[in-house]
Amino acid sequence: MMNWQSVWQKRPLPPLLLILLLAFGLRLIGLDSQSLWWDELKTIQRAAMAFPHLMTDLAGHRAHLPLYFMVMQLWHGLGESAFVVRFFSVIWGVVGIAGIFQLGKHIANKRVGLLAALLLAISPFYIWYSQEARMYSFLPALLILAHWALAVAIQKKKLLPWLLYALLMIAAVATHYFSLFVIIAHYIFFVLHFRQLRPQTIRWFLTMLLVGLCLLPLAWFVFTSGNGEAIATVPAWIASIQWSDPLLTIWNFSIGPGIGLGEWYGYSATAVFLFAFVIAMRPARRRKTDQVTYSSLFVRLFIIWFSLPLGLTFLVSLNWPFLPDNPFSLYLDRYLIISLPPFLLMVAWGIDDWATKPSTRFAAAKRWLQSGFILMAMVISGISIWQLNHNPNHLRNDWRSALERINEYPTNNTVVLGQQDIVLPIDYYGDTEIVYVQLPPPDGAAISTSYIAAIRQQIETAVQHSPTAWHIEPFYNHDTHQFPETRRQQLANDSESMAQSWLMANFTMLAQHRLPGIRLTLFELEAGLQN
To answer: Beta-carbon neighbour count of residue 371 at 10 Å?
Structure first.
């Protein structure tokens, strides 16, 4: 009797098409249901810039590299709606799934490729970033295709795979700094396996020489722009590293942030994923002296690809005593999405290796357990995806609803108060008649006399336009793993904001609305100034 594993192995195209359709559907459903948040609006702003202005804007911060935004400049001609700008990420999310099938098929078999494609297709973490107008579905797709080209180049004496690998790695490095971790991982792999892969190692170093020459203009741009300090590229809002962070990253890679840490089934599912990953590591320990075992070599490559970005980022983010007194952290799961493909590929490989290993007593049971794993992964992913798209605590900052609420209150002139980061959303979603008045940033841990003087001056400016004003406070999900608890607590507590505390103490609150990631408060200003 033929089982479904045999069908997948002999005729992979029909299940692959179903997986790609599923992936496309999961990414297309609700694509524009959530509001664009600040980072996505910044993508639109940069996509609309002329190329010289784009490079000037990037040079001022150096937090991002230019390729993704250059490509989005071409895409921008199709429109600026949430659906259009996010659809670019949908396409690359599906490309990554097709790519991981090719990679898994090449290094293992068609079953591994299909299972890896299915896991990536239903991954809540990958779906989230495949529905966001940022580079976090574009980048993994480039790296998946680069590893497929590298795997072909290692096994076949052809020039074209090496050129394709070089081109994809140039694109990846020009998209995000963390792609350099992948090059370091490849360096370690080839150095460790120089004896088994001597010709391929020499070709790799020559390829990296070509990659380095092509990236010299980008390196010159990065090191000559800004204020000359490398630390300028590190966002200050990333939370300090915790010892539990790598385990929580694996949690996200397995089931996504939609499953809360208090749910027992989340721990169970993550443990199953880890078990499968460990099983896949077994070929790395096998040694054959008479021939090169490509399966064991590729397992080692994927282990290094997965672990090195996590390990190096963790170590760099620690507060070392010999470093300056201004510690910083780079550890953020969306940056580490480059390690998601090897993790899921290893999980798929482990499940397939365990289920198909010769065994007369438990063969049928193992096939049923493999089917159970797939069912479990789909159910858990479905729960996580539902939470991410319907639980208000998980939703992106709802600027669209915020501006709609403000427009519901009739007034001759609408005045909004806030920090500089509310300008982009107002320009995109707001009415042209909205007057923006910037409030001063805090100048210390407590409200000072100078801060009161500065904020009163801005309030006086606002009163010239209208006796009332909306104070808009965005609360971003800066959690390392995208868990929503911290943002939810900030949103519920008025004392979290110095400006809000002072306004509440000195003016009459007329209305307040709490939306996903945003707090709106309407104040009567004129009477308060007179008092």
So the answer is: 14
Taking the CB of residue 107, how many other CB atoms lie within 10 A of it?
Answer: 24
- Four-point Cα dihedral 136, 138, 140, 145, nearest 10: 180
Tell me how far apart the alpha carbons of residues 331 and 324 are, in angstroms, rounded to a whole number.
Answer: 18
Sign of the C-alpha dihedral, residues 364, 370, 375, 379? positive
Task: Report the distance separating Cα 218 and Cα 211, nearest Å.
Answer: 11
Calpha distance 305→147 (Å, rounded)? 10
Element (H, E) at 174: none
| pLDDT tens readout for residues 416-443 | 999 999 999 999 998 778 899 999 888 7
Inter-residue contact 468 to 435 (CB < 8 Å): no
Question: How far apart (Å, rounded) are the C-alpha atoms in residues 316 and 314?
Answer: 6
> How would DSSP label each residue in 201-270?
HHHHHHHHHHHHHHTHHHHHHHHHSTTS-GGGGS-TTSPPP-TTHHHHHHHHHHH-TTS-TT-HHHHHHH
Cα gap 25→21, rounded to integer Å: 6
The whole-model pTM stands at 0.93
Cα–Cα dist 98/121, whole Å: 9
